Amino acid sequence: MFHYNPLDCLPSAEDLPDSDDTPVDNELQDLVPTLLKASLALLWAERWDWYFGIDMGIYYAPDADAIVPDAFLSLGVQRVIDEDLRLSYVLWEEKKVPVFVLEVVSHKRRGEYSFKKQLYQNMGVLYYGIYNPLRKRKSALELYKLVGGAYQLLPGNPVWLPEVGLGIGYYRGTYQGIQRQWLAWFDEEGKRFPTPEEAIQLERQIAQQQRELAQKLAAKLRELGIEPDSVG
Does residue 56 carry a pLDDT above 80? Predict the structure, then answer.
């Protein structure tokens, strides 16, 4: 008997375009998501049940073009599917809607506050963030949560995301030698997690302190007439 499975007739990630070929409007649309992804890879280095996509097409319906957010986070999926990595994010293959989507606003609006917001809401994306570094009077980061099928704006900076186990917010700091406002991950108490650059610098500081302590100890032993190498 012939068994029909409609999922077998849907296109796979290999069959679909992996990008809409639309270039980013400014450098921040690349740097901000890249910093978030690098920081997350440091925080969740031992976890393999998450995926953070940057400028990657999300296919949500077989007869619709992909939507390409600046960044998105999915939980409960494989971090690496194979050595060729993901070409795109296909909902009927992944079976998980992203839990968080981020759009970075530039001088050229791309529907972040209108049709994209509505689309992510209809898709069931739990958290939708709009980062607008051009804003001066209002908060640069708007974070919405899906409640009862509609997005509600969440107050505060940072904002805690209990389903993710992290908070997200903005701060002033330096990344790749650029001092400005950036987005980062925070713990539940509002303490910012270090960036990879900061983590490396901290490790170097600790190593330097340990070397200086060892040198002081060796000097003290010599004052007592004891060769440090003889102490085992």
Answer: yes
